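Schema walk-through. Below, the input block comes first and the output block second. Nothing else is stored per chain. Lengths vary across the set, and this one has 616 residues.
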Amino acid sequence: MSSGANLDFVEAATGELPGIAEGYSNEKTLEKSESVPDNASDELMGPNGEQYPTAEEMQTLRRVYGKIDWMIYIIGIVEMCERFAYYGTTAVFVNFVQQDLPTEGPHPSAGAAGTDGQAGALGLGQRTSTSLVLFNQFWSYIMPMIGGWLADEYWGRFKTIYVAIVVASIGHILIIIAAIPSVIQNPDGALASFVLGLVLFGSGVGFFKCNISPLIAEQYEASHPKPFIRVEPNGERVIVDPGLTISRVYLRYYQLINVGALVGQISMVYAEKYVGFWLSFTLPTILFLFCPLLMIVCSKYYVRRPPTGSVLSKATKLYGLAMRGRWSANPITTWKNLGADDVWESAKPSRQERKPGWMTFDDAWVDEVRRGFKACHVFLWYPIYWLSYGQMTTNLVSQAATMKLNGVPNDVVNNLNPFALIIFIPVFDKFIYPSIAHLGLNFTPLKKVHAGFACGMLSMVVAAIIQHYIYTKSPCGKYASSCDADSPPDLSVWVQTPAYLLIAFSEIFASITGLEYAFTKAPRNMRSLVTGVFWFTHAFSAALSQAFVPLADDPLLVWLYTTIAVITAVGGIAFWWTFRSLDHEDDELNALPEGAYRAGNDVPAEAGKVQVGEKA
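--- output ---
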């Protein structure tokens, strides 16, 4: 379809022509430091006077980061508060469910056992605690699929976030009720309130997660949708690369997440140990209520995309049309057919003799959907990666309880993970990634994910070695978790440090990159949904982890960690073998133009156009 035909399509669909910069509002202007020469070619000029690079310049000029607006950090602080609430609450789940109510301590009826005691409440054992924690992970990460669909099609990101906050708040309250000392005395009632609270808590968390990360990146993309030329003070012409900048946005966003996680987890495990579980669940709830306050106060400054309606159904029909005649009883044949170069070409509107009524979009949107499906294929491998990551909040916490703690709560040690992330994210951002680029190596997103698999595998190798020495040194042998707390093996809990460091490195490589990949590869009106697909892989992994629950007890824990290490290693090799050719297409996929899309009669014509300061 020609560019003129494309403009005609959008004019007919919306009643107006799209903005020059890919349909974005141009209310934001460039900073003086991002000025361009006066003699720039009009054909390569953007709506705010920025000069777009030529194909030759894209290959030869140095790429630099753009300026990150203060509003991006405000949204990051909102997520930091939500993560404090989430991790502060979930940090004590294992002890609350697994360990017995103490008989001694400052407040034993509330589960607080003091410095040398073990905090606990319901006393249901390690397998039950592992199962409930995995259920919480599964539910919290399956709900982003639903939240993303509602946001993209009906509510928009802001309304969905507000609904998430209300639902999660009710869940928080039910979990607090389960921890009240008088309720703990009735374990069945406490468990019922706790499980119902988990369902609502996880629903709110899921709705929140799939919308906040696309929202933060859109704040930058709205004013800088394309690479543009900037002249440095020394006269050097450089390319301000939105993809590079969005990668930095997500690194800093993830750092704020881990500030919230670190403070929440450390403070709440001490609250559990010295006051009781009710306080560990109450304080995160209070901080969580700051989320809507920050969202409302800064509402007029946010850039947002309204919902576009029926986008999922149209993408599904488009996929069905593209795959017509390509399905096979042999899954390998189907996979090869899906990867054929012409699979999406035949589904483009310009190729249809009789275009279906639901095909209210142009060829460029088909390319966007194709790119989004490629991202979802990448995410299909993430459940294997999450297997090693998930041990951090379940079995490694239980492993810590069998070693010398010296007054440190067993569920505070895993805070080495967010602590490492807070330290090493700036190191990767400022030194490691730039150094790799300086060496002329293109460390693409898929290469980073592959490195994440490797680090996850190594963390499980370390955990298996530690567990072997626990069994060797424990007076109870391979039943170390049954030993009295006063007779742990001669092994400090801090030997777990390498395992947590490796998990942190794997997150930098795989988890942060996954969020970035979901945002940059999804169709612009399906970003919440594709982000939901990314998080859904975590839910699938939690369900998959249930298969390993029989190994999550003495004397089989060495086999547990070894098995997960082997599966992660094989998964990482298979991941790279599958996507090694896609890795070369990254720049090409990022450069795709935004397609024209008409929602239909169910959504206003201006749906999908970025707006600034719209009421939520």
